Amino acid sequence: MTTADSSGYAPEWLRLREPADTAARAADLVALLPAVPAVIRDLGCGTGAMGRWLSGRLPKPQRWILHDQDQRLLKIAARSLPPGISVVTEQADVTRLGFGGTSLVTASALLDLLTEEEIQRLVKSCVDAQSPALFTLSVTGSARLTPADAADEALNTAFNDHQRRDGKLGPEAVAVTAAEFQRYGWTVHTRLSPWQLGPEHRELIDAWYRGFVAAAREEQPDLTVPEDRQITEVTVHHQDLLALP
Ligand SMILES: C[S@@+](CC[C@H](N)C(=O)[O-])C[C@H]1O[C@@H](n2cnc3c(N)ncnc32)[C@H](O)[C@@H]1O
To answer: Which residues form the Methyltransferase domain (predicted)?
Structure first.
């Protein structure tokens, strides 16, 4: 299984990571939301995992507007959110949207895929609409593997360089987003939200490691990677961010 290819993110990869994402997100940030969110936009919704996680934590009624650039994922998302909420989908580049009439803008595993200019547009759209923003699970650039190997530091470095390709912010995304909201005088809360994977996540560890090594090798083809590695535990560091007007 590949995580993403030229046709976009594989639904199987998003399904495989969903339980780890669910366990990792910082649920206490939801309690800091000031008002009852009625209209919620999920940016880069994929198969709708954020809606499945968040909708049950918020009071009803809720109207969800799911955005993604990938129509195939939007179709899956539209039919897999929990009952009792209203759901519409819109195919769009989420960095070019206005958020008028929105009470919460949210996203999961999106910020690190964006450039600084895209983050600036996204933050300005939230500020213009005075909509709080909850952005979860942005990578922060460090993965700890057990048992460790001498190659791990070089692997992490090459993987992070790959994340920064084409001007994407990768591990710097949360810091840049936080600073941008603060520039407008907004309050920003952040939390660590690591994946903590053990033997019960065998399939996810294997798929994640294949993607990690492939990305690192694309960046540094001569990288020496241990053969037949039996990884028992992985911590992949992420951060969640809540921005309030
Ligand atoms: C890593 S996946 C995360 C999906 C989902 N939020 C989750 O947590 O399972 C990133 C998603 O963002 C979408 N995406 C990335 N950049 C986008 C953009 N500029 N506009 C719309 N969708 C985008 C991708 O198509 C993909 O579905």
So the answer is: 42-129
